[in-house]
Amino acid sequence: MLSRLKALFRGRSVTIQGVGKLEEGMSKKVAVGDPLAGGTSFVLCRVNGELFALDDHCPHEDGRIQDGPLADGRFAVCPLHGYKFDPRTGQAHEVSCRKARTYRVEQRGDDCEVWY
Ligand code: FES
Fold it and tell me: What is the model's pTM?
């Protein structure tokens, strides 16, 4: 009963396999489910050895945050206007903009679980 209650507050989760090898300063885009039926996509980023998940919808004007190398090894970039976001907090870097949505991540060996 308690675990079902916890799951209710945590939201849905998904296990992403093989991301344990994601290198420092790199990111990878992951799509989960059908975007027309509650699915989403996010960018997994490795910063200071930890994995973070950032919604790929840019809070500026709804561009898509890209994957690949992080700017300065620690910022995810939206290519539409070049805004940078800190994957650890979702905060925009050096510009005035709402935070990008972040998701909780737990790495387990070569896999990770993301709550969205
Ligand atoms: S829409 Fe992403 S920076 Fe403008």
Answer: 0.88
Region class of 91: left (phi > 0), else alpha (psi between -120 and 50), else beta: beta
> How many angstroms does the Cα of residue 89 sit away from the middle of ligand 1?
17
Dump pLDDT digits (tens) for 27-85: 999 999 887 887 889 999 999 999 999 999 999 999 999 999 999 999 999 999 999 99
Ligand 1: centre distance to CA 64 (Å): 8
Lookup: tokens for 103: 């998701």
Contact 79, 35 (CB under 8 A): no
Question: What domains, with CATH codes, occur in the chain?
Answer: 2-115 (2.102.10.10)
